[in-house]
Amino acid sequence: MQLSSRIFLGLFCLLVAILLLAPTLVVIPMSFNSNKSLAFPPAGFSWQWYDNFFTNPEWLLSLRNSFMIATVVAILATTLGTLAAFGVTRAAARTGGLLRAILITPMVVPGVVLAIGIYAVYLDTGLVGTMAGFVFAHTMLAIPFVLIAVSASLEVFDRRLETAAASLGAGKLTVFRTVTLPLILPGVLSGALFAFITSFDEIIVALFITSPYLKTLPVQIYSSITRDADPTVAAVGTLLFLATSFIIVAGLLIGMRRGRT
Amino acid sequence: MNATNKSAGASIDIRKASKRYGKFVALRDLDLSIRPGEFMTLLGPSGSGKTTTLNLIAGFTEVSSGSLEIGGKSVLGLPSHKRNIGVVFQHYALFPHMSVGRNVAYPLTLRGISGAEREGKVRHALDMVKMADFAHRYPNELSGGQQQRVALARALVFDPPLLLMDEPLGALDKKLREWLQLEIKRIHRELGTTFVYVTHDQEEALVLSDRIAVFNGGQVEQIGTGRELYDNPATLFVGRFIGESTVLRGKADIVGGDTVVSIAGTKIVASGKISGQAAPVILLRPERAVLHRPGTGVVDGENRLSGIVEEAIYVGSGSKYDIRLKDGTTAVVRSPLGAPEFAIGDTAEIVFRPGDVTLLADDASADITLT
Question: Do residue B115 and residue B258 come from a single domain?
Answer without folding.
Answer: no
